[in-house]
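Audit log entry. Action: structure prediction of a protein-small molecule complex. Ligand: NAP. The ligand was supplied as SMILES and no pocket hint was given, so placement is left entirely to the predictor. Protonation state taken as written. Sequence taken verbatim from the request; no trimming, no tag removal. Recorded inputs:
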Amino acid sequence: MKMKAAVLNMPGGPGNLNIEERPLPGAEQGQVVVKVKALGLNRSELMTRKGLSPNVKFPRVLGIECVGEVEDDPSGELKAGQKVAAFMGGMGRDFDGSYAEYVVLPKSIIYPFDSKLSWEQLGAIPEMFQTVYGSLHLALKIQRDEILLIRGGASSIGMLATQLAKLSGLKVIATTRNPDKEQLLLKNGADFVVIDDGNLSASIKNMFPDGVNKVLELVGAPTLKDSLECTAGGGAVCMTGMLSEQWAIADFAPMEYIPATVNLTTYDSGQIRVDLPSFQQFIQNVESGLIKLSIGRTFRLDEIVAAHQLMESNSAGGKIVVLP
Ligand SMILES: NC(=O)c1ccc[n+]([C@@H]2O[C@H](COP(=O)([O-])OP(=O)(O)OC[C@H]3O[C@@H](n4cnc5c(N)ncnc54)[C@H](OP(=O)(O)O)[C@@H]3O)[C@@H](O)[C@H]2O)c1
């Protein structure tokens, strides 16, 4: 039997993603074959597509996350048809990922779950939830009444972070470079929207003279120093994203770079995994309407080129989901 997969034979533009027919993969012990029902697109896949992930070998099927149904578990532990989510763990980088009708995954990265949500909604969840929950609760340890600055507030991670922080009782300042997105961000729950020109510390200190308590940094190295300068003593900045595609700091001198008593941390969903009960609880919060997922647009697998073009245009306004 054959399946369709979007294969990247060599790095380049969106047009380098080719739909190909491949043999249906089989699972060995410790692996599971998953029928992919939906997958969210991620900026890291855009970076891999451009050749910015140095360890990725080609040809490669990209896709660091998916939701779907178990097709075959040789151990018999997971029944065929069980709903599962998977993300990271080398998916779409070290081995072929989710831009396909079927994917073979190590059992260690699989979360079985129950839900009546549509596959479109479920497809938006795994990596987005994991990253936002981990950044806010495990890295930044957000507390009620704190002020949180979300740098890159119009990204899908930024939009969900706004909602989770509001549910935890924080005041949220969301940034965008695009004034047209102000209403979108306010409607999503932000208390304030600030237009980011790369230098926010003066305007943030005008609003909050002591600075903010926490910063979720999604733009990356170019704005990180300014984010640290927006932060009150004892507060913290978590570098989770690099929308700027820059993640290294040249000549890093910690004592000049980090203001005294401000904490700098990171979150990487490749290093830490949120527990299964928190994942299931999040799905229930979406089902009950407590969380509103912002889905930018949905594509079919054979529209993967257009989906990547939309991601690169920064105009999706939410998570892009592909339904194979
Ligand atoms: N650490 C982890 O484990 C982890 C996991 C998942 C994702 N991430 C990272 O989190 C970040 C957000 O991911 P996402 O999927 O939510 O992104 P996304 O939805 O594709 O973000 C799109 C938004 O990013 C902003 N943006 C794009 N380029 C920018 C630039 N050069 N400077 C400032 N803003 C820019 C644009 O907002 P405006 O036009 O409104 O400014 C755009 O609307 C990415 O860097 C991603 O790699 C990290």
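Audit: result stored. The first strand starts at residue 2 and ends at 8. The CA atoms of residues 17 and 165 lie 36 Å apart.
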